[in-house]
Amino acid sequence: MAEPAQHGLPAGYAPEDAERFVPEIHGGARSDFARDRARVLHSSGWRRLAAKTQVLSPTAGIDFARNRLTHSLEVAQVGRELAVALGLAQDVVDTACLAHDLGHPPFGHNGERALNEWAADAGGFEGNAQTLRILTRLEPKRFAPDGTSIGLNLTRATLDASCKYPWNREEAPAGSQKFGYFADDAPVFEWLRAGAPARRKCAEAQVMDLSDDIAYSVHDFEDAIVSEYIDPEILTSRSGHDSLINAVSEWAGGSFTGDELGAAYDRIAETPTWLVKWDGSRSHQAQLKNFTSDMIGRFARASIRSTREAAGGTSTAGAAGAATLARYGADIVVPREIRAEIAVLKGIVAAFVMASGHRQPTYRRQRDLLLELLDALWDAGPGALDPAYAADFRAAADESGARRAVVDQVASLTDQSAIAWHKQHCDVPLV
User: Is the pLDDT of residue 399 over 80?
Assistant: First the structure.
């Protein structure tokens, strides 16, 4: 049976889970985890997500496509439902989901590539590591006694739940550029991971990661159809089907065989709400929306069921086995066939949108814009940066630290402000 809550914390959580890097004393009835959620929602970094690319840039003129902020809200909705079903702290999972994309620079993953290239000799760039940096350093909210910014000063459990890749760049798996913290953020990373198994994500971070995968797969697919990058009739007719499955397999990095992905595609296409054509009518819009709902429910239910079974309990949250999931009590189990179905939806979007030949010139221009802006700001020095980043530049102990301040500045920009900054600093002579 679930243990009773202690110290005002949800069942399964200990006082150290609610500790902050710098201790605080609060009044009022809000829990520490609820306070974390409010801090993210009220942060400037979170508001900026409204003007940052999810798949299609907010500058592309398609006003109904998702952006990073709406995506984060949808991830949080999925995550909160999973947390309820699995007996996890809802506010911890919710906050991790809301914060998971804070570190994304302008132009999404494409911009991430440009910043990583420019900062290659200064620790590189990774959006998830930048998220931790924002939460613990860059977002102005709390300061240590010595005047050092400590960001939002969230609790240990919430920060750990926000850490999708609990390792640094040198420890990243072979062939992967994903990592969770930069070298100068090691002290806070080591603090938040106190007592955690090396390189293992807590259950709340696993739920955040799964929620991101679910929302990403179904909602980007929906946006691609509404934006007419994907024609359902082509999918239904199976025109070029083998080539499509090969493209999906390549996008999935060989994680699944072609037969597995083909079977996953067939299962998805057998869903009653699967679209066979698209004309933009309300009936087709409703069918597409119901398809995304069906997929979210399908992926979530299968994962909840498998996780409960692996944890030794099959009944509702809070019953036998459920509370053991908190923090490092158990792992989230996603059936392989569900992972394959998620990979199919992601891969279809990748094939028709991200890897599409006619999109490549746009992606190249975006990367060039950011690289040119980074060079211009570096040449101009701290006077070209916002005051907070200029102070970081001047206080840097070495060139790598100064370059990191420039990267932090550019990463904070929205798509539109990056274009405006480029015009200001690159299209006219620097003074």
Answer: yes
